[in-house]
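Chapter summary example.
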Amino acid sequence: MKNQSLIENLGFEASDKVVIFHIDDIGYSHASNVASFECLDFGIASCGSILVPAPWFLEAASICRNNAKYDIGVHLTLTCEYDLYRWRALSSVDPKTGLLDSEKSLWRTEEEAIANITVEAAEIEMRSQIQMAVDNGIDITHIDSHMGTVLNPKFIPSYLKVAREFNVPAFLPRITREELVALGLGDLADVYLKMFSKLEASGVPLLDHIIIDTLGEQPDNDKVDYYCKRMAAIKPGLTHFLFHAAKISPELKAITPDTAEARNQDYEAFTNPRIKECVEKHDLKIIGYRKIRDYIKNQ
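The structure predicted for these 299 residues follows.
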């Protein structure tokens, strides 16, 4: 199944610009939960993914359980990047798994996680996170990766295995060598390109385009203009367009002082009527992952 035929089978033209407006990091704080569900209610954001081991997961799960309309996946994580705000693996505290650092929390960096976590432990942890979401009443629509860690070649086979087990689509981009270099993955470009080519040939659906580098942008004014410029550059095909919404608060500033304002700007941008005007101006067709999941399940 190739991506172009996928969007056509979903009812779109091959020339359409189909966009998944996706909120990352739901569940990691109360501030992110409040902002994320407001953005989903506003209507441009179409879906999001939840950090299951994070401290505010249960609040997010309760919201989803009481409102089936929300299109929510699992933001699979083998890392916890914050200095003083940590979470642990769900599946084990055994040092032999390599899951935990000296503070008995998930590793702060992708590099540490990849170097230390065994493939078996990573797979068990991914499965545990998905099952926890299901057990808490979330109708999960997809899986993706926090900080990109489970998309490393070491873990991708397990990532795709659990996607098949739960019969949900997995975030996977069709990506060029140039884009891999820009993401700092140039040394793995040959591995990724070969792997993704085999996956697509086997029928795994890949995203045509990704816009994932939005968190670091903090304009002096509001962020709507920035996002409108990014929308203007969207090409035909299926695009995964992510952002991180959270309401500014003492909690948010304490957790992540460096990105608190950027996350609040994302929340404000995706609840601003001007963002709807941008979507209409550039004729973007919005979908969530539930539509893709349901199509795959019916094949």
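To summarize the output: The domain at 3-172+207-297 is CATH 3.20.20.370 (TIM Barrel).
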